[in-house]
Specification:
Radius of gyration: 19 Å
Shape: elongated
CATH class of the largest domain: Alpha Beta
CATH superfamily of the largest domain: Threonyl-trna Synthetase, Chain A, domain 2
Number of domains: 2
Helix content: 10-25%
Structural class: alpha+beta
Oligomer: single chain
Distance between the termini: 35 Å
Largest sheet: 6 strands, antiparallel, barrel
Order of helices and strands: EHEEEEEEEHEEHEHEEEE
Number of strands: 15
Strand content: 35-45%
Number of helices: 4
Length: 237
């Protein structure tokens, strides 16, 4: 089992870990990791492993059951070797800010328009969400942008919790996506709360306060169907 340090501290830039296993395809499993393996629209982290004068780039990360696989470009450490893990922090922090910005967007649209999310994706500095909305206009997008930046200025704390599944599902509107993507076998649900605005199940990395997101700009909006509208946002990087 890999200890998922990114779940408990999104701000960890480096850590020491032990190699648990290796594979001929260039992947290694560590006893703990700060590398986010992707999911929920958030891309994987990149970075490097260092040990005894060797350096290998981490170019792909994937969660497989209770383990996280790290694919390396370069030498492969041996089983039992202790390595220093360093993530590409600039990229990670941009993704943390972007992910929280999308949660602000989700929270505002749910609070004011009661529209569920039908899809989403992100890259460092920009992202999009699709909502179950019947109509949308340029004036609507301008209004949404104003509301988003009000929430940034409000400097709302962002809190992460892990709750037993039964307790989590007692929270109204915990799942904001049109389809519940949580596997049935999960016994504990990780939640991300923007205090006073938004609370939902989420496994990604976030900043600790909405003020860290910075200015949010609505850079695009269009119809993706009769009741499916897309909003694209960007943050200053």
């Amino acid at each position: 089992m890999t200890d998922l340090l990114y779940h408990t501290d999104s701000y960890l830039k480096e850590t020491k870990a032990k190699v648990v296993s290796t594979d001929g395809d260039g992947s290694v499993v560590l006893d703990k990791t700060i590398f986010y393996p992707g999911g929920g629209g958030q891309p994987v982290d990149f970075g490097k492993l260092l040990w005894k004068g060797y350096v290998a780039r981490v170019e792909k990360v994937k969660k497989a059951g209770e383990e996280v696989l790290h694919w390396l470009a370069g030498p492969t450490p041996s089983v039992g070797q202790f390595v220093k893990c360093k993530i590409d922090w600039d990229r990670r922090y941009q993704l943390m800010r972007t992910h929280t910005a999308l949660h602000i967007l989700c929270g505002v649209i749910w609070r004011d328009f009661k529209a569920q999310v039908t899809g989403g994706n992100m890259e460092p500095g920009n992202g999009r969400l699709d909502f179950e909305l019947e109509s949308m206009s340029a004036d609507f997008a301008e209004k949404v942008q104003h509301l988003l930046n009000q929430e940034v200025a409000a400097a709302r704390p962002v809190r992460v919790s892990n709750l037993p599944r039964a307790q989590a599902f007692e929270i109204p509107d915990l799942i904001r996506t049109k389809i519940n993507l949580l596997p049935a076998g999960i016994t504990e649900v990780r939640t991300v709360e923007i205090v006073g605005l938004d609370l939902q199940a989420d496994g990604g990395t976030h900043v600790a306060n909405t003020s860290e997101v910075g200015k949010i700009t609505v850079v695009g909006h269009k119809s993706k169907g009769r009741i499916n509208k897309r909003i694209r946002i960007a943050i200053d990087i």
